[in-house]
Amino acid sequence: MYYPKMDVLVLVVLLPMMASIMAQGDQAEYVIDIEDFFQDCDNGKPFPAIKLEDFETLQDDEGNSLMNGNLIFADEYNDPIEMKIYSTRQKQGSWVDGEISRDVMNVCPLIMSSSEPWYVITSAMKKQDCPFEAGHTEKFELLPMGDMGFGSIPESFAGNWRLYVESTTQRGAEKVTECFRVAFSIIEK
Predict the structure, then answer these.
(1) Alpha-carbon dihedral of residues 185, 186, 188, 189, nearest 10 degrees?
(2) Which residue has the higher pLDDT, 119 or 147?
(3) Of the residues 74, 125, 164, 173, which has the maximum number of CB atoms within 10 A of its CB?
(4) Other beta carbons less than 10 A from residue 186's beta carbon
(5) pLDDT digits (tens, 9 = 90+) for 122-156
(6) Any residues with CB less than 8 A from the CB of 64 and at least 6 apart, and which?
(7) CA-closest candidate to residue 99, choices 18, 186, 2
(8) Taking the CB of residue 64, how many other CB atoms lie within 10 A of it?
(9) Around Cβ 188, how many Cβ atoms within 10 Å?
(10) In terms of CATH architecture, what is 28-188?
(11) What local confidence, expressed as pLDDT, does residue 187 receive?
């Protein structure tokens, strides 16, 4: 027996409900899981003149990354501070160039810009402008790392990553370039 009202019911109620259920799979939330925060770049450039004391990254109950510890400037960082950021990611077992890269001619005027990825950290610092003198110390207690400027993370970014940060500053008559690496994974929350 044919019920024309059933067609309307399927179109009006069941199809949108099914579309909503199927779309939920597309709306998975992805978070950054920091594995190693401050590692050597293995590219011949010296490690930054910054020391981490009692430093650790943790995860809260919701899987969000938190940062704890002291950051100590072992040498001066003068204005301007150039920054080159680039990434690699693991695809099919090999490390390849990642989609994340940026060159900043001078970080100093951008330190407190809320649209910058470092704002998560710099907004929690006592000193929020350049220069940073040798011996200056910043303390972080369960600082939420958030999405670190990524915003909504696309599913295609899921996997293992390495982010490299090269900084260049003037010390005396010499320009010094240093590098550190952050290893992280982008995982479904």
Answers:
(1) 80
(2) 119
(3) 164
(4) 19
(5) 999 999 999 999 999 999 998 887 655 555 777 88
(6) 31, 144, 145, 146
(7) 186
(8) 16
(9) 11
(10) Distorted Sandwich (2.70)
(11) 85
Beta-bridge partner residues of 181: 39, 164
Could you tell me if 54 and 70 are in contact, meaning their C-beta atoms sit under 8 angstroms apart? yes
Give the Cα separation of 138 and 170 in Å (integer): 22
pLDDT digits (tens, 9 = 90+) for 8-41: 333 333 233 333 333 334 456 877 777 776 788 9
List the strands of the sheet with 81-91, edge to edge.
30-40, 174-188, 159-171, 81-91, 94-104
Specify the residue for token string 């951008």.
Answer: 110
Chain centre to alpha carbon of residue 117: 7
Q: For 40-67, what is each residue's pLDDT tens digit?
A: 898 899 999 999 899 887 888 877 778 8
End-to-end CA distance of the chain: 47
Beta strands in 60-171 (DSSP E): 65-73, 81-91, 94-104, 137-144, 159-171
